[in-house]
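Hi R.,

Here's the chain you asked about this morning:
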Amino acid sequence: MTHDLVATLHPLLTAEASAEAYAAGGEPGDLEQAVWLRLLERLETEGPPLDPEGWLRRAVRAEARRSRRTSRLERPYQGEPADDLRAGPEQHVLTAARYRALRDAVRRLPGRCPRLLEALLSPKDLTYREIAGELGISQGSLGPERSRCLGCLRRLLPPEVAACEARG
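And the predicted structure, written out as tokens:
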């Protein structure tokens, strides 16, 4: 019975929804979906309408009115929230966890690697000459030592921390 009713009403609903939707500020598919839902709710409570075509026309118009009322109350966002480039709380937590893992791994490095990488990561933005003087090594050996330390660090870090994030 329900399948026959749906098959019978489908072309009429498509036509009525197409005629009413745009004036209501919506899409025909959304309007159709709302009317189908209304029909299912009615079938559960009251059974099929005595005049299905008349009921459908009234339901489409009622849903279109409801859509117009709600569209008048809705206001668009000034900017699309999904385009927000600021980091949210989840990103701050994940970034802090990666930095903690990085700092812990740096402390576990052998020899003077921890001091060298701490100097390289320093907010003071030290030059190679200043770092070499601080560590008591020649400026020429700083590059190879840094490469060796970074290789050790990559092996110590978990893959999710060692992976470089895409930049652009």
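The chain has a mean pLDDT of 84.

Let me know if you need anything else.
M.
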